[in-house]
Automatic annotation (TrEMBL):
It comes from Dysgonomonas mossii DSM 22836. This is Myo-inositol-1-phosphate synthase GAPDH-like domain-containing protein. The keyword Ribosomal protein does not apply. PANTHER family: MYO-INOSITOL-1 PHOSPHATE SYNTHASE. The lineage of its organism: Bacteria, Pseudomonadati, Bacteroidota, Bacteroidia, Bacteroidales. GO terms for biological process: inositol biosynthetic process; phospholipid biosynthetic process. InterPro entries: Myo-inos-1-P_Synthase, Myo-inos-1-P_Synthase_GAPDH, NAD(P)-bd_dom_sf. The keyword Membrane applies. Residues 247-359 form the Myo-inositol-1-phosphate synthase GAPDH-like domain. Pfam families: Inos-1-P_synth (PF01658), NAD_binding_5 (PF07994). Keywords: Membrane, Transmembrane, Transmembrane helix. Belongs to the myo-inositol 1-phosphate synthase family.
């Protein structure tokens, strides 16, 4: 198989996070601890997973980071934007995800990460009140400020490459409109302060227009619009998203394939979540919850295909709830009640109670996504990177295709894409 020409990962890789809160600081601190040998990056495929190469009898199972030319963690530099001025160490202490003992091991490095002023619009995040924010007459000029921030960061830190990842809050639900459908309409909208262009759109435009990979970790429209697909094609830029797949939805992408492969029926699936971090506070607003709900609800139907199996999945009642509960902080509880039926329609139930840590699950996804997106850019890939669907609740995909939600199929696709990059045969598990 012809090997993809992947440019060497020379020099420093700048990682800019939009949002320097719980997820971002957990990601930053964990990466810094890992490269110091003071932590294990549990959950990171790029750092821990192996990948079979060749036939089974060849017994070649190198770690992905040894087989694929990824950026080295020692070459990573962090920065970001936030609506609050506190540095990454102060933000991490406030988030209360990692212990003070762990944070103090990388305190100097975290204190040096001081967020740039953020693009912020109260209409898109009702429950937060930003104090460290940019101002400009138009959204176009805000995008120009973001571009300047990136250039200044790159110069100051002597970075060879940049990747940007959204680690901010969920914005209010915004339906796809005319302003999102063409690049010309989008750019006109920025100049005219169109009401449907969110802060995430401003960031995405600035980043993608510079040819920098953009990762959308929230269910916001952001880069999942024709205007951004057009811009990504024009600048030859990888984009991916949307909404990190961490807790409850990850379980759905595991359990739903199990029900389908065993032809077990489903009557209903009720999901509720309680969490108390800033994400929980934001999602307490109905507008932001609507955006998240759309992302969470799409999974089951996509996997079970009720149009093909009406007798099993034609009448599923699926309900999702998210409840803000401050005492939990970053500890999230996802509870599911699943009503099944089996042979001759006899009823059964399954209960799942996942007590997880939201940012602990999201941090390794951030690390993998920035390294893989940088790899994609060096490999000359552009546009929607659907091979990274493994990481997202509502994976972006080409308009002519159907999204793939099955976690295990997504995983095979991810590894087969990596195999292609290094000139290895893809694996179909027949032999």
């Amino acid at each position: 198989m012809e090997k993809v020409q992947v440019k060497e990962a020379k020099g420093k890789l700048g990682i800019l996070t939009i949002g320097v809160g719980a997820v971002a600081t957990t990601f930053m601190a964990g990466t810094l601890l890992t490269r110091k040998g003071q932590g294990v990056p549990v959950g990171s495929i790029t750092q821990l997973a192996t990948m079979r190469l060749g036939k089974r009898e060849e017994n070649r199972f190198p770690k992905i980071k040894d087989a694929v030319p990824l950026a080295d963690l020692n070459d990573v530099v962090f920065g970001g934007w936030d609506i609050f001025e506190e540095n990454a160490y102060e933000a991490a202490v406030h988030a209360d995800v990692l212990t003070k003992d762990d944070l103090n091991k990388v305190k100097d490095e975290l204190e040096a990460i001081k967020p740039m002023k953020a693009v912020f619009d109260q209409d898109f995040v009702k429950r937060l009140h930003g104090t460290w924010v940019k101002s400009a007459p138009t959204k176009w000029e805000l995008a120009e400020q973001v571009k300047q921030d990136i250039q200044d960061f790159k110069t100051k830190n002597n970075c060879d490459r940049i990747v940007v990842i959204w680690c901010g809050s969920t914005e209010v639900f915004t339906p796809l409109g005319e302003v999102h459908k063409t690049l010309a309409a989008f750019e006109k909208g920025l100049k005219e302060n169109h009401k449907d262009l969110a802060p995430s759109n401003v960031y995405a435009y600035a980043v993608v227009s510079m040819g920098i990979p953009y990762i959308n970790g929230a269910p916001n429209l952001t880069v999942d619009i024709p205007a951004m697909w057009e811009l990504a094609a024009k600048t030859q830029t990888p984009i991916c998203g949307k909404d990190f797949k961490t807790g409850q939805t990850m379980l759905k992408t595991v359990l739903s394939p199990m029900f389908k492969t065993r032809m077990l029926g489903l009557n209903g699936w009720f999901s509720t979540n309680i969490l108390g971090n800033r994400d929980g506070e934001v999602l307490d607003d109905p507008g932001s919850f609507k955006t998240k709900e759309e992302s969470k609800l799409s999974v089951i139907d996509n996997i079970l295909q009720p149009e093909l199996y009406p007798e099993l999945y034609g009448n599923v009642y699926h309900k999702v709830r998210i409840n803000y509960y401050p005492p939990r902080n970053d500890d999230k509880e996802g509870w599911d009640n699943i009503d099944l039926f089996g042979w001759l329609g006899y009823k059964m139930q399954m209960k799942v109670d996942f007590l997880c840590k939201d940012s602990i699950l999201a941090a390794p996804l951030c690390l993998d996504l920035v390294l893989f997106s940088d790899l994609a850019k060096r490999a000359g890939l552009s546009g929607i990177q659907d091979w990274l669907s493994f990481y997202f609740k509502s994976p972006m995909h080409e308009p002519s295709k159907i999204a793939e939600h099955d976690l295990f199929i997504q995983y095979v696709k991810l590894k087969n894409t990596l195999r292609k990059m290094i000139g290895e045969e893809t694996v179909d598990f027949i032999d």
